[in-house]
Write a sequence for this structure.
């Protein structure tokens, strides 16, 4: 198995685990405020990542040398990646979610992979084969088709515009935050990379959660309650497993390819919503799923498809 194929598998696993977590977060979000839920999931994820790093270090003592091998600039880059992609982007995302509904957020989220492709081209000089662009187009089209995008009726035009703007900035920051870290990801163990990013993001978010007159409300979530039935497994799948798979995907394959495959999380979320929340799965979502899976297949087997596509185009010209 090649590294690129391994990275694509991890990117898809990230999409599946995050999609499952989204369904659980939807349930827990009915009882927990957005900032508090974000703080809870990041804390759970951070504790699990620290535990994983410790276990890894006990089994392989040399792994503790990874920090010594990193330069100051590389550590700062990883932590900056966490601040941008976890603390700041998530905060803006939750503000946007308060202004516009989930359907419209999902539409804006379609910009994630184009942003990642753009940043990977500018910062990493990545170039994609025609098969990658075809697959990316099918996935984004499937995601867009599979999400409802009616405008919320209880918001003014100004609120809708601000919500879309904040969501767009959040998506761009998520893409930028992971792309800038890719050069360091290639030199460091996945667990350490995920842990360092999470430390920076969780600490900044924790500081933010202590500000304001209602700061106590953000910390009540840590008291065991019924909300934990959904929030705890959602945090394990969405912040720990999905984070590790997400970082591994960007480590082992092209940043732009990993981002496109990550985009399928919305399609998987629709499937889990049908299975767990008994939502309707109509013709629209079937077509969307078919388009997205077609895009995944094209990207996964791009090494086989690209030369044949190039020969076909050469023959037509």
């Amino acid at each position: 198995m090649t590294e690129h194929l391994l990275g694509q598998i991890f990117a898809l696993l990230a999409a599946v685990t995050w999609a499952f977590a989204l369904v659980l977060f939807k349930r827990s979000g009915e009882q927990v405020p957005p900032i508090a839920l974000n703080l809870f999931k990041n804390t759970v994820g951070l504790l699990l990542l620290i535990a994983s790093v410790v276990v890894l270090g006990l089994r392989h003592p040399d792994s503790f040398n990874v920090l010594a091998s990193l330069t100051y600039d590389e550590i700062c880059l990883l932590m900056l990646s966490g601040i941008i992609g976890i603390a700041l982007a998530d905060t803006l995302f939750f503000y946007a979610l308060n202004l516009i509904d989930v359907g419209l957020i999902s539409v804006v989220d379609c910009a994630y992979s184009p942003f990642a492709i753009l940043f990977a081209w500018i910062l990493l000089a990545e170039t994609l084969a025609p098969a990658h662009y075809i697959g990316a187009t099918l996935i984004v089209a499937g995601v867009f088709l599979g999400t409802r995008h009616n405008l919320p009726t209880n918001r003014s035009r100004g609120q809708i515009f601000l919500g879309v703007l904040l969501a767009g900035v959040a998506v761009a920051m998520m893409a930028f935050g992971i792309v800038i870290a890719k050069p360091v990801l290639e030199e460091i163990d996945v667990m350490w990379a995920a842990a360092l990013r999470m430390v920076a993001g969780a600490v900044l978010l924790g500081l933010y959660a202590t500000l304001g007159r209602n700061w106590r409300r953000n910390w009540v979530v840590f008291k065991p309650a019924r909300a934990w039935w959904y929030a705890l497994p959602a945090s394990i799948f969405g912040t720990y497993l999905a984070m590790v798979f997400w970082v591994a995907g960007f480590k082992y394959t092209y940043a732009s390819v990993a981002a496109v495959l990550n985009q399928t999380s919305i399609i998987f979320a629709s499937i889990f919503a049908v299975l767990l929340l008994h939502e309707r799965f109509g013709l629209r979502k079937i077509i969307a799923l078919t388009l997205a899976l077609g895009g995944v297949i094209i990207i996964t087997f791009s090494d086989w498809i690209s030369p044949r596509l190039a020969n076909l185009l050469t023959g037509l010209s």
Residues 308 and 314 are 10 Å apart (CA to CA). The mean pLDDT is 81. The chain is about 80% helix and 0% strand.
